[in-house]
Amino acid sequence: MRFKLFVVCALACGFMAYVLANENISTEEDLDDQVINAVPQIVANPKPSQPVKPKADTEFVEVVKDVPKTTTKTKPSTSPTPKPTPSGQRMIPVVHVTSRGTDDVLTVAGLKPQKTFGALIMPDDYMGELIDVNTGYNWDPNNNVAPPGYPSTAAGGYTITPARLAELRSNFMYWFFDKDMYGGRGDYQYDIHASMTQLHKNLNFQMPFYGFRFNYTRLSLNGYLEFSDPPEYLTYPLVFPIKDWPTKRDPSFMGIFFSKCRVGRIYPSDIDQRTPGVYFRVERDLMGRTDQFGVEVRERTMWDIRQGVVGAETFVPKHVVIATWKNVSFAGGIDNSLFMTNTFQMVLATDEVYTYIMYNYAVLNWLSHTEAGGDTTTGAGGVPAFVGFNAGNGTQAYEYKPYSQNMVIRDLANRGWANGFPGRHIFRVDEQILIGSCNKDIDAALLPLTFAPESGNMLGGQVVNITGPCFDPNVRVTCHFDTESVLGTYVDTNRVICVQPFLKAEGYIRFQISVGTQRFKWRGKYFVETPAAATEKIFFTTDDVYKKNPNEIRITWIPYNLTSNSNANVMISLWGYRETKIEPQLEYIDVIEASYSNTGSYVITPSNYLNRKNVNRDMQFGFLQINLTQPDQYSGLAISPILWSRPVPLAWYMAPQWKEQHGIQWPRALCDNWLRSDRFLRNFAADLPLCPCTLDQAVLDKGRYRPDRECDKDSNPSCLRHRGAIHCVVSGTPVAQGAEQQCCYDRYGFLMLTYDQMWGSRPRRVHNLGKMPWNEASKVPSLSMWFHDMRPFYSCCAWQEEQAVGCETYRFERRPSQDCVAYQPPGIAGVFGDPHFITFDGTAYTFNGLGEFVLARSIDESNRFEVQGRFQQLPTNYYGEVQATQLTALAMRGNTTTTIEVRLRPLHARWRYRLDVLADGRRVYFDRESLKFQHFDGVTVYTPTYLLNQSQVVVQFDAGIGVEVVENEGFMTGRVFLPWNFINKTAGLFGNWSFNKLDDFVLPNGQVATINTNDLRSIHTNFGLKWMLTDRDVPGVGAALFTREFGRMSSYYANATFQPNYVLDPADFLPGNRSYDVERAKELCGECLQCQYDYAMTLNRDLAHFTKNYYDTIVNMQADNAMRVVSCGVLQTPRFGRKLSFDFMPGAKVSFECNEGFILLGDQRRECLSNGLWNIPEFGYTECLREVYYTRRIAFIAIGIIFLVICPLMLCIVCGVYRYRQKQLKEDPHWQMPVLPRSRASSARNLRTLNYDDDSDTDASTLKKSRSYDKVYRTNEPLPGKPQIDFPAKKWDLDENDEDVTSSEGSQNRTSSKLARDISYINPNVTHVTGEKPKQSGRRSLRASGTDLDQHQHQDPEDHEDDDDFDEADVHTGTIHPAGYHQPLSPEEADQLHRQQYSPTFSGLDSRTSGASSINYTPQAATQNRFGGVPVLPSNTQYYSRPPSGVPTATATPLRTAPTPLTQDSGLPSPPLATSPTPSVQKSTEV
Which of 15, 114, 198, 963 is the most buried (most CB within 10 A)? Predict the structure, then answer.
């Protein structure tokens, strides 16, 4: 009986336990059939008592019952009243499907989601009974039945409407289904339970997470998705990453509620009766999906993330994962604790580049499980769950403070406010963890601020979205950009917008906000892009904007950068910049277009602005600006983004005004103004480093030069302002005074100089990065550089001829290129492999240290630098542990510069970035064009423009030091470049740079260790370990510069007891059974011992290959830099000329040419000799002179030569005369120098006497002036009683009226006239009275009688000195007539002499023929004259007034009265003082 009673009781208890265990399942099934919308049955003719009540805004379609496949046709709804239907048909409400605008979807931001407190609450109102006609599926967002069908990409698929999207987004939780239409369990994971808490899931796509990338995951009951195994046991509170990794597993996971859980139970009264447990759903390839569920998942996720996370404005999800933990309880509790449950959901979206995670906390009733100290009934107390992310493999972790493992974790369901929902929190988790929701519960002195974009143009206008604290519309928010403050604009609780102002700064600046009266505790770093290097947002399709007078300028922009609404209107305006005072001036100029549709393109017509009268017309360069005209119509905010162009010259706009102000030569006027102002500024050329001679040298000089953005062979080969160049380099950092060097190279790799062409290398007064303080003129980044260096290039050269005076002054004087004659290549040292070192002096050795060591440091206290390396053990190979290390990180710092650290990323974290770069402990990235070159305090860091994975990083310090880090397949090399001012000033593992290998192994105490490079043990013990670093400062060694994370100090990496392999040859340390590895090493590496060693140690072909590659590279670098490059330097192009070649290397022959109208002087060709000098010019230095200047120069040279010859000759004559006079005075004290007569006539006669030479063809009469008009004198009319007479050509006599007694060209006073007193006539009637023959009188002495003539003929020649009228011509010319006249020459003699004459020069022959004037005249004999004229007598007046020879003077009387002289003034100029005897006697003659 007792046994029966016991059995009955046992059965009763078992039955009760069974009922209790299955209560939730039975209740769920009942509710599924009754409460939750079951699959409806399609009825052809519904009963009148069961009408379908449509909503007011629904549309009806006809359903034909006879057609098996129903088709729907949608039309615009014009009335909420349903239209009548034919009999036999019924109306079903459907959603109106139409095309949508992107901006229309933005209207759903104003949705008011329902609050979710306690258990899940189903929405009270529903926007329509969305029944699919084909399948009968109910598209209610809260339907627990999974949708039917398969993903589709067919064209013409489903298009979601804004109303439907708003309906979906109004629900807090995403889809999760515990049933499907085929009787399955939907998304419910029934395999996850207490005995198996996780389940492996293949994603079949690459999902980036925290630097790594995974194509799988593990779904855990314990509130996380993991990607690697967790540790065997956990200690609380949880700390990630695991410090003991790799000895202890460090899992990679996403923890929404990391705590031990179990499946709970639900009450029958709960509205949502879906089965408790874990749900998991993956929707792939959403970008091309056209089926309804795929489109809805994509659109809902996309807009939730775009509006929930700043910086996700362009994100489109490609794959979506939805994991839901519904009604899970804590582990370790009593049975009643199963009803104490939490419900939360993780939505993961990725485009395989960016990954976003959404945490939806619906209900949180318990905090921790019992193992963590929680209560067994309520789960309270203890250590709450961990919320956050762990990258795994001991790398990095993020804990969501203050909620994670804190009692306020229960507030997760009431905080976040992403998309306006309390309990929703969004993160970006692909590379870094960026929170996208506000946090009002945290308080600290420094809180991380999330904002996007993280950089903007220095000119301002960038709209910055900010997330951090929770915002209140009634509380003021202040944004502080460096030194500028602006007010923020409230968007929602989770977001505030601030518009970046005009910032006179560059690089990373402080960015912080203040809420209300709070201090600025939310902080971040904002990167300011210089205008010349900022992200280009306005594009010029051609180069017309740079021309002097273009016809049109075409611009384009991306409309989405302003708004996605193509109907929006934009305004295009013009701004300019100038520096007329200490403060920079960025000013508005004009409106180009007041209102224009946001189409993304516009054509500017410069002729539309011809009549502008701008007050700031002195602005020569500026920017185009585009912004929305009415932004509040499109975004609901009175804030518009601003797009800026790159700097451009403004000739296309200002040219008419400049022409009006300066004239047609306005470019020359602008250039002259700049030249005057620039000459007042200091000369900066001496501060700049010299340019390398060749392109190869420029590329290798990593410490001083970096690629020029405007002319880069890898990314921008256009070289707009350097035509003919293929690559340019510029100074990496500004020099002490802020200048910048530029070196450009042609296709042959030679340096281009401005002395040769206007496109050559041009140094710049101002660096593109500016100079501190940036808020002063001549120091503003980009703007000052354009004002001082780019602007004059256009006004002096680009808008004028290349050989204009202004351009040549700009090229030769103000911005001349510096040649490379004194260029000194840097010293190079490097480390690579496992690891191998090559010092600055070329010593190669191997040192396998484990820890952090000094690679190179300066011992000069005035110019310090440090480069440190971290070496970690190589991973194991097939045979076990590898006793060798490799380089994994480099840290470096200058005097007071920012500390830069470059790390090797973990193996599985290299899918996007190969290296991590940290600046003062903060990670920086170079994956955008505007971020390729980043400047910090005293240091510039950049990656090559053609790389996007950060596999090569170059660090340049302002002292000219460079560090290059290269990664390939996980193996790093580090190279250090030093200028020559560090010779004998270095120490460390790279040795002392002294060009002497014997002192490379310098110890920290300054002593030099004597070490054999083949003895690896001695190197390791006696040298390498001496340079090991610690976290404290060691004299001579210093302190470690590496960033410490997660408590890992230098001791974590260091191990001084590590014993590596000390044998270098693989044949010596590999066992005999591994001969294949030895042969394989030789096959792969050849003669490279370092490569053989690395392969034998690791059996890694990649390591061996890159070890050999790195070794060859650094050896070749050192060889190239050691090779002396001979250069002859600048050979200046002559002004107004050109060179036919620009080579300046030995053997080059350069020829010169001059422009038209110029004459080349000097050598036409020069040659560069092997000694680095141009050959000495043979004819002088080359120059081009204008023809007029050339003629003037020749004249001056001739005058100079004459002066140099005549002056000494005259001095010799004077000295000779003086000595002669002294000699005569010594012999005869009374001797006097003969004095010539002072009268002009006597002086002329004496000169004729002195100059007479019997043997010469000339005589004294050569001093006479030649006067010959028509060779004969003709009278206008015959004189009374005188015959018609032709006069022969004659010479003018020298008399007192002559102005020049020595010139053969006559008097300079050509306007004066002279009396023709050379000819006179004796009245022929006198012959009949006196019986004397008529005589002709002239100026020469006429011997009237044979006695006189005989006396003269027999007179001693010495007596001629007393005769003033003596004329040598009277003696030597002609014969004596019996009547006392000279006999004239015969016609043959006269004709012969006439043929020997030339005109107008007077010769000796002419002087002898002048004797023909001493002839007698008879009227009968006139016709017998050769010339048909009257011979001229030698005198006209003195003959008649002088007494005959032998007659005393006192009693002398004239023989006859002198007749009135005949004058000739017709055709001759009239003498100003001439007097005539009487007007009646004056007669004119025609000449």
Answer: 963
Residue 1140 CA to residue 317 CA, distance in Å, equals: 61
The shares of helix, strand and coil residues in the chain, as percent rounded to the nearest 5, are 25, 25, 50
> What integer pLDDT is reported at residue 1477 of this predicted model?
42
Instruction: Enter the tokens of residue 392.
Output: 């795994």
Burial class (CB in 10 A: 0-12, 13-18, 19+), 1244: buried
- DSSP character at residue 483: T
Query: DSSP string spanning 377-424?
Result: TT--SSS--EEEEE--TTS-EEE-TTTTTSGGGGGGGG-EEETTEETE
**Residue 1172 pLDDT grade (very low, low, confident, very high; cuts 50, 70, 90):** confident
Both tokens of 195, joined, read 């005995």
Query: Per the structure block, which two tokens stand in for 1127?
Result: 């250069």
Whole-number Å distance between alpha carbons of 1353 and 1372:
12
- Let me know: does 416 contact 408? Beta carbons within 8 Å: no
Q: How many CB atoms lie under 10 A from the CB of residue 733?
A: 22
Any idea what the Cα angle at residue 1447 is, between residues 1441 and 1449, rounded to 5°?
55
φ/ψ of residue 369, rounded to 5? -95, 170
Strand order from edge to edge, sheet including 922-924:
922-924, 915-919, 900-904, 885-893, 866-873, 851-858, 986-987
Is pLDDT at 404 greater than 70 in this prediction? yes
Query: Which residues, at least 6 apart from 1077, have a Cβ–Cβ distance to it below 8 Å?
Result: 1066, 1070, 1095, 1096, 1099
pLDDT of residue 1378 exceeding 50: no
* Sequence letter at residue 257: F
- Rounded CA-CA distance 882/1054 in Å is 17
Q: What is the pLDDT of residues 620-663, one digit of tens each?
A: 999 999 999 988 876 677 888 899 999 999 999 999 999 999 99
> Where are the strands (E) in 65-180, listed by range?
91-94, 145-146, 179-180
| Distance between CA atoms of residues 960 and 732, nearest Å | 8
Q: What are 115's two structure tokens?
A: 């609050």
d(CA 1008, CA 847): 17
Q: What's the N-to-C CA distance of the chain in angstroms?
A: 184
Residue tagged 């050559």 (tokens): 760
CB 272 within 8 A of CB 35: no
Residue 294 backbone dihedrals phi, psi, to 5 degrees: -65, -40
Q: What is the DSSP letter of 1297?
A: T
**Would you tell me the crossing angle of helices 292-308 and 162-169 to the nearest 10 degrees?**
70
Residue 122 confidence (pLDDT) = 37
Residues 6+ apart with CB under 8 A from 641: 461, 462, 463, 561, 562, 627, 628
Backbone phi and psi for residue 1416, each to the nearest 5 degrees, phi listed first: -85, 165
Give the separation between CA 676 and CA 1119, rounded to whole angstroms.
Answer: 47
1372 vs 154, more confident: 154
> Which value, in Å, is the radius of gyration of the alpha carbons in the chain?
55
Beta strands, E only, 1126-1190: 1137-1139, 1149-1154, 1158-1161, 1165-1167, 1183-1186
Q: 59 vs 377, which has greater pLDDT?
A: 377
State both tokens at 545.
């904007």
> Which phi and psi angles does 268 have, rounded to 5°?
-60, -25
Which of 608, 310, 283, 633 has the alpha carbon at shortest distance from 450? 310
Looking at residue 230, the DSSP 8-state letter turns out to be P
Q: In whole angstroms, what is the distance from residue 431 CA to residue 392 CA?
A: 13
CA dihedral 196, 198, 204, 207 (to 10 degrees): -170
The C-alpha atoms of residue 1051 and residue 393 are separated, in whole angstroms, by 19
Residue 508 scores a pLDDT above 70 = yes
User: Dihedrals φ, ψ of 1162, to 5°?
Assistant: 90, -165
The residue with greater pLDDT, 1463 or 622, is 622
Separation between Cα atoms, residue 749 and residue 566, nearest integer Å: 48
